[in-house]
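FORM 7B: Structural annotation worksheet

SECTION A. Query
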Amino acid sequence: MPRDTGAPAPVVASAPQSVGAQLDRQPTPAAIERAKQSAQANVGAALMQAQTYDAHGKTQECESAVGKARLILSP
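SECTION B. Predicted structure
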């Protein structure tokens, strides 16, 4: 059994679990479609922002916006 060192436990970030997930419910086709559309809109917005930064010569901000789009697209 681990000994209590008095140090605070590490904080682990996580998203709140939905009630549906707690009840072992699967997402509906409509919910999946909404999630896909939302992701596509977010990717589009990030890429448009990247283009704006690129047009103004803001390389670091452009790369950051492209990175955000990549994160949204990664599984």
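SECTION C. Observations
The two ends are 37 Å apart (CA to CA). The helical segments are 19-22, 29-55, 59-73.

SECTION D. Sign-off
Analyst initials: ____
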